[in-house]
Task: structure prediction
Amino acid sequence: MPIFRFIHASDLHLGRRFANIPEPPDGNVRGRLMEARHGAIGRIARAARDHGAHHVLLAGDTFDTATPSPAIWRQALAAMGGDRDIHWWILPGNHDNLRDAEPLWERIRAEAPENVHPLTSAEPVVIAEGATLLPCPVAWRSSGTDPSAPLATMPSAEGHLRIGLAHGGITDFTESGESIPPDRDCTARLDYLALGDWHGRMEVSQRVHYSGTPEQDRFKHSRRGVCLAVALEPGAAPQVAEVETGQFLWAEMELALAPRQDAGASLEALLPVEDRRDTLLRVRATGWTGLAEQADLAAAAARHGPEFARFELVTAELGTRYETTDIDEIDRAGALRMAAEALREEAMSDTLSASEREIAGDALARLYGYVREAAS
Amino acid sequence: MRLRAIEVNNVRRFTAAARVEGITDGLNVLCEPNEFGKSTLFDAVQALFFTPHGSRARDIVALRPHAGGAPEVSVEVETDEGRFVLAKRWLSKPSATVTQDGRLIAQADAAEDWIGALLGGGEGEPSGLVWVRQGMTQFASAAKKDQDAALVARRDLMHAVGEEVETMTGGRRMDHALTRCREELGLYATGKNRTPRKSGPWKAALDRVEILTAERDDLAETARRLHEALDARRRAKRALDELEDPDEVADRQERLKGATEAFDAARRHAEAVEAEARKVEAARISVSNVRGRLETLRAALAERQEATDEASLAAEASAAAAAERDAAQDALDVAEDALEAAKRRVTECETARREAARLQAARDGAERRKELAARIERAEAARRDMESAAAAAKRGPDPEALRELEKLLSEVATAKATRDAAATQVTMSYAAGRDGTVRMGGKPLDDGRAVPVTRHVSLEIEGVGQLDLRPAAGPDDGRVERAEAALRGALDRIGAGTMAEAREASAARTEAERRHGEAKAVLASLAVDGIEPLRAALAAIPEVSEDSDGPDLPEAEAALDDAGTARVAAQAARDAAAERLSDSRTHAARTETALGATQDRRARSEDSVERLGDVTEAQLEEEFGKARAALETAEALHAETAREAPDLAGAEAALARARSVDEKARADIARLRPELATLEERISRGSGDAVEERLAETEAELALAEADLARIAHEVKVLERLEAALEAAKTGSRELLFEPVVRELKPLLHLLWPDAELTWDDGDLLPSALVRKGEAEPVEILSGGTQEQVALLVRLAFARMLAAAGRHAPVILDDALVFTDDDRIEQMFTALHRQAADLQIIVLSCRQRAFRALGGQTLRLAEVSAGDVAR
Result:
């Protein structure tokens, strides 16, 4: 039997609107992110072609919700139908589960191009000569059961490659019965278990893999999305190659600062140089700085932030050192100095609540900004 | 910074270049007449420092001469870095340059920045603070317009002082911070309570959260309905599929047919069973009838026998009852006789007891009478004693009268003694052995006893004759007689002849009163209410013969008790006999009634037997046996038929169920089809609307909006806190920052007013009052001269403070003392000199004569020669 090649992808979450991303008045980041998710179909198809694969296994959550708009699912089907040599095997996940997305799957069954195959029942499907696909569609949004359980008893023809396709979290050997056991390939005699749900790429074992989403949608993984080009041969270990498909990079970086460190320059040094427009960056500032450094940091962030698709400067873990020189800069004496001292005292108080301290600290930083503004 | 020279060209009246130079560190005075251009010079210097060279403001245009031209101003200043020339030109070919030793340091905007840095930040900082514009020079003008202008200028001056104070408190940056803070706060909130501004981002965020929440809830509800519709459709489809399944339909039909046939067969068999049952029922009725007749006959015979027996017994009982009634009547008669005898005995005993009691009472009355009679007698005696004593007690003088008599007697004695003492005394001394006696008034005179002679007496001297003594009348003649007459009168009134009688009568009266009291007490003890009640009580007691004989009372009472007891016993015996008679009479009546009833019963039973005819018991028994056999036969036949019968109710229920199932299936199908269509349409519409997508999007947007709202709320709190901190610090700093001002100002004020102080207004930071000799005078009511002096001194104090802070600035005074009188101006000059020790002061004045006494470096404004201009 020749080597059987396919693409393993999951969690396209088509239709996700990214409403949790603030839209700048003059920007269109949400639209670009949505478009990039749709574009992942084409990039997966290209990966299939590049790797000589005629099958794409989508391991759940192809759609972000159970009721995507007609434009979303029709355009997706149209894109998949663009190359009839590539067969798309689509597994319902928890987001587009059978129960909630019943109308969706009915329509896909009725209207999908011939090379697009919704897998709405847990029954073996011979997808190629010598290769049987064992799908485990998710019936409920949250079932509390192991979605891969049917694999153990699913039959296949003798000598066929057994390829499992499931969607759900993997257990940490607690045997809670609610998730997929990591040795499911063994218990179900699988040559490969293609999993979805986890948006980051993860190799659970030699034959069990999460492809992760082809287009990232969160800062957690700090790398572009991939799909997996898999080659299976009976009796041999799977050959799994990662193919980068993500347009946007979601990255989170830590900026560790120390007092009197040039915070603005440090931020600039940290920022990636390339592809800023296609990068969503979250910088978590940590450590301690003075008011001046914080003002410089904020200024640098304001200067460079718009260069990115999305830029977040998180300062929750950045402490403020109220240096005397900073307070002197507000004023060496007089009313402003008195106000600054009062706010500094509150910001460093042991008795006030965290909220009150934060308000006082922010007020002091604001006063510092006003004074610098007046001096400039 | 110190000014060294000023040069103007094409500035108002200076159509040619003019220059002031030689300005020293201390006090400099440019004293020139009016219209010389001092104020122009002031304005020119101010324009150079504060108005950009590109400006075409009205103030700049006002600098241009009537003939036109571009105003040019330059000053030479000295700083720690050396001397620089600052020059500006406005309107035409504007320029700004800074040169040092002819070398261009900066020009245009760079020159402006350079000048700005030199000033330390901008207008009012610090030079503008200590320059006094010409403001009051025309105050004395008669024209109201000019007076108003001067007043405005004076106000400006005072306001400038206020600004200085504010600046010394760091106010410009404070103002900026406060202004910015309030500006930003004002974007979000309005009013004292900081409510969200209508068109502001805070209100917008609140509205957005509200709108998104409502939208989210709507979408969630729509999604819920969609899920419900999906569930309903799933259930409906499953139900319809099952109902329309061909096998299911055939099965339902088969079940219905089978149930119908089974029911028909069961019904027919049931009818046959029912016919047999009717036969059984008829046989049963026949048996029942025969059995009834037999039982009736038997009952009638038994009844007749029983009635006969009962009548016999009743007759016997009736006879016994009559005998008992007669015996009871006899016993009653005996008992009643005994009772009558007992009653009579009681009456006799009562009569005897009454007689005994009467006799006892008579004896008691006789005793009582004796006692009462004796008592009355003693009482009468006592009454009599009392009456005689009372009569005696009325005689004789009472103690008072006796005391009066005794008093009168005493008066007689006293009168006599008095008279005798004054009267002639006759004392007879008998000779021893004399025979005769001398008598006076017939009584012999005692030897040696003096006898008074109060009236004519005759001494009879035996053997001698008679000697008449006639005493002369004394001064108290008649007193004794009056006393004696009074005594006699008193004695007469009581019926006594002498005093002894009177005393005896008085003693008798006292004795009578004592006896009267004793008799009265005795009477009272015997007859408290008097004697008459005793007599009445005596009269009430009948007189009986004490010796009458009769029965003894206790014996009579004992006999009466015995007779009473006997009567009670006789009464009880009589009552018992009466009750026995009553009972026996009742019983006899009953037995007679029972006898009648049993006789009636026997008659009725005999009638019953006769009504049954001639049939015998044996005949009826035979007939009953035949009827029972017929019944058993019918029952056996019915049982056999019923045993083979199918369950009709079960068959009917099965048929009903089969029909119900079929009908329900048809109804369900009829209901489910349109319902399914409706659900299909709803689901199609709902899923096509991308409800879940929109819900997820709205939830995410809501989270963002809530975060944004939280951020804004935090921002508002931060700004509020900052504003509060700034205001608190500003208020708190005033007192601290006034202190150096006051300290600096104090010696200057004391030059003019030795004990004066200024108070400050917390609100506008202006001097509010001048306190002299403990009296505070508001600044606005001070004279114009005093106001300008105060303003100038305050300005000088601030200039010193600025200099001390390293922000040295020249003080330029343009006719700052126009209302100050000659005396006061001397002190002001001293103040200026005092401050000029470490300040550069430039005084511009038109009062040449007055300012001659100021001293200091005299400045001259001179036209610049062409050569100098070229330089």
Notes: The first strand of chain B starts at residue 2 and ends at 9. Chain B touches chain A through 49 residues (CB under 8 Å). Chain B has 18 helices and 23 strands. The CA atoms of residues 120 and 126 of chain B lie 7 Å apart.
